[in-house]
Specification:
The complex is a heterodimer. Chain A is built from 10 helices and no strands. Chain A is an all-alpha fold. Chain A has one domain: MetI-like fold (Orthogonal Bundle), CATH 1.10.3720.10.
Amino acid sequence: MQNLIEYAPLLVRGAFTTIMLALASLALATVLGGLGAAGKIRGGLLVRSLVLGYTTIVRGVPDLVLILLIYFGGQRLINIAGKAIGVDYLELSKFWAGVAAIGFIYGAYLTETFRGAYMTVPSGQREAAMSIGMRPLQVLRAVTLPQLTRFALPGYANVWQVLIKSTAVVSVIGLEDLVGLANDAGKSVREPFLFFSAVFFTYLFFTWVSQTIFNAAERRYALKELGDAV
Amino acid sequence: MRFDLVAQNWELFASGVWMTLQLTALSLVIGFCIALPFGLIRAKSNGIGSKLINAYVYAFRGTPLLVQLYLIYYGLSQFEAVRGSFAWVILRDAWWCALIAFSLNSGAYATEIIRGAIQSVSKGELEAAKSLGMSPFQVNRLVLIPIALRRSLPQYGNEVVFMLHGSVVASIITIQDILGVGRTLNARYYLAYEGFLTAAALYMSLAFVLVYTFRQLETRYLGYLRVSR
């Protein structure tokens, strides 16, 4: 226990890295998901097949495989490119390799979430908004997005909960996140159970806090009873 | 790209596929055996047993599989009592630790799936069974569980693919599953892509086969729900 207190600042630093990794990945995934959904809804045949290829392939490959591929493969590409322009050695950031891999994976899941949510907004509403003279951007902001938010929230919350657990495997490429640091510390003081228990409960805390926040958000965006709305 | 090296080492990959399938399938079977009674208890009672099961489900669904695996594989060796006990033969072995972690993990997810499916069975069906004079045990065995298991097929199919993908963490604790073999190949020939790309293709093919199989099962066992819609 003494050791755990001694190493607490280190673990807090690791937990901070884990959270930043998860948030950056979510941001990337949200952008990719938005683009993917737009492509699936509005795109021509070529764009639609590209998005279909993206979502199909990514959802078939485990996260760790993609992380290793991006990290080691990306490093090899950088080495080749570096040699070509005469730069000695550039190291690929472990953090950003992790963000790229996890963001890329969950972007595929969010594509489906956003597309599904968009489809639930009846097209008659958009047409009605346009018929009273609203511009496409106005329609999106005032009619589609508020409802899309409501329909997409449960799926979005789900993806986040899976995503944050996915960050644990980035420690495999040597990122000093919560799992990586706890692994080193636990081995050096020969108390791995204690340190991994701390990691276990930290993740449990993360998922619990996220659940609470998303529940509040779902209440905020829920359909109000008719009585409330008036 | 040196895919000829992959071809030369195809036996390595074949054994990797076998290892992955073995671990995934065994974990799913053990997980299911945990989940069926636990799901029933969760759906039907609110007592202390149900609360304990809920704590187990919550803990295993709320944490990464990798951390659960580390806790069992590296963590338990911290205790002298474990190292001295008869269980040490099992707990020092990476394969057994992976099987234990995966089974507990899958059991937690499947418990939640089965609980949901049981609660979705309509009361009328159970009352109809009771009115025929079936005992509570008969109602469970002949009506409730078959209906619930059918209804849980779509989510259970997701869980199967999830477990297949989750099983990659076994390669971190030196098990030669598909990814483990890919990493070995890359390390042996100093490659950056080939082993991982082959692993990715293999996982993807397995996932597609599983998805297809579950779609067939759904048409076979859930077709009656589609007709009524």
